[in-house]
Amino acid sequence: MQDIVFRKVVAERFGGPGVLRTVTAALPTPPPGHARVRVLAAGVGFTDLMARSGDYLLQRRAPFTPGYELAGEIVDLNPDGPTPPGLGTGVAVAAALTAMGAYAEYVTLPLWQLVPLPDGLEPRLAAAVPLDHLTALSLLDTHGRVGHGDAVLVHGASGGVGQAVGALGRMRGLRMYGTASAQGSREALARYGTTFIDYRHEDFEEVLRVREPAGVRAVFDHIGGANLGRGYRVLGPGGVLVSYAFSGRPGRMVGDTMRGAARVKLMGLRPGRRTALSMVPREIAADHEGYRSALAGLLALASRGEITPRLAAVRPMEEAADVHGALERREISGKVVLVPR
Ligand SMILES: NC(=O)c1ccc[n+]([C@@H]2O[C@H](COP(=O)([O-])OP(=O)(O)OC[C@H]3O[C@@H](n4cnc5c(N)ncnc54)[C@H](OP(=O)(O)O)[C@@H]3O)[C@@H](O)[C@H]2O)c1
């Protein structure tokens, strides 16, 4: 096997979208237990923007390549034991990465991370599945432990993770409330049967006090700060507040995130309700088999059209900086997928 010369997007230092550059590098022969994968599509998530700014808790050192999820094709592999079922040269796969790196023409990944694509599933659609939907499973099942008929509140319901919660929550028969503001959110949330709460004009505590006087079973929060206390107040007995991210002051996001996490832990000491933190990259790294079966299940749902990630845009990988800028200016709302030329 020879080195592959390839292009990848690199955040040369922390900063605005302009720090993203396309560079050329050599990809050596994969080490034992790894495969080289030609990337066909890479999903863009809000976490990539935070990491590029240097504002992410599980931060990579600069320079680094963003991107937590991809669909691609195995070009060669170097097993160090039995190869996971279905994998081989030429096989189309999807993966959620644990330390980013998907904005590239090729990546080297451990074999356990690669999950075969079901027949007929478009790589562009597959690339929009892993991170958002694994996060939704972490929220609903691992931490939320919600079941049929439970009422839940999801903040950021119009976003990538929020819509994945909507799609999987509908399958579980949940009664869902979602905060959002983007144009078209009411219609987007209605697809999942989620009641839309416009956080610019409505107070979710007031809405839920009227609609769910006994309190909700779970609140999924990505805002942090005062929102955590407000979310805790709308929980019913035995309910759970699950934090899946924190917003913070520009340049102080990591400190704010750690303060938010400490706050969630402290709230969890009070009796009668639970709190939890969802950190999917760590959850994937801690349970390879759980990850593989969860992602295989999600890809099967996508291939049957039972989950349909909505692609707001498909753009060339080299335009990653433009895409980050447009997402930051909120000119694009929804999932973007990058494709190498
Ligand atoms: N726990 C994990 O392991 C994990 C994994 C993936 C992502 N995340 C985190 O999850 C969050 C969402 O990621 P994403 O990729 O889904 O981002 P996204 O697509 O940009 O969605 C974020 C959503 O948040 C909404 N929002 C902004 N301010 C809000 C407010 N004050 N109240 C309620 N909603 C608000 C926006 O809604 P409008 O535009 O409608 O206002 C937007 O739809 C990010 O913080 C990301 O880092 C965590």
Task: Compile the SSE list and pairings.
Layout: E1 4-11, E2 20-27, E3 34-44, H1 46-53, E4 69-78, E5 92-96, E6 106-110, E7 115-116, H2 123-126, H3 130-143, E8 151-155, H4 160-171, E9 175-180, H5 185-190, E10 195-198, H6 204-211, E11 216-221, H7 226-233, E12 235-243, H8 253-267, E13 274-277, H9 280-286, H10 288-303, E14 311-316, H11 320-328, E15 335-339
Parallel strand pairs: 8-9, 8-11, 9-10, 11-12, 12-13, 14-15
Antiparallel strand pairs: 1-2, 3-4, 3-6, 3-15, 4-5, 5-7
Describe the structure.
By secondary structure, the chain is an alpha/beta fold. The chain folds into two domains: 4-128 and 281-339, Alpha-Beta Complex (Quinone Oxidoreductase, Chain A, domain 1); 131-277, Rossmann fold, CATH 3.40.50.720. Helix content is 31%, strand content 28%. It has helices at residues 46-53, 123-126, 130-143, 160-171, 185-190, 204-211, 226-233, 253-267, 280-286, 288-303, 320-328, and strands at residues 4-11, 20-27, 34-44, 69-78, 92-96, 106-110, 115-116, 151-155, 175-180, 195-198, 216-221, 235-243, 274-277, 311-316, 335-339. The strands form three sheets. Strands 3, 4, 5, 6, 7, 14 and 15 form a seven-stranded mixed sheet that branches. A six-stranded parallel sheet has the order 10-9-8-11-12-13, with helices on both faces. The protein has a two-stranded antiparallel sheet with strand order 1-2. Helix 3 (130-143) packs across helix 4 (160-171) and helix 3 crosses helix 10 (288-303). The protein is globular and about 65 Å long. The model has no long low-confidence stretch (mean pLDDT 94). The structure holds NADP nicotinamide-adenine-dinucleotide phosphate (NAP). NADP nicotinamide-adenine-dinucleotide phosphate binds at residues 45-47, 50, 131, 135, 155-156, 158-162, 179-182, 185, 199, 222-223, 244-245, 278-280, 333.
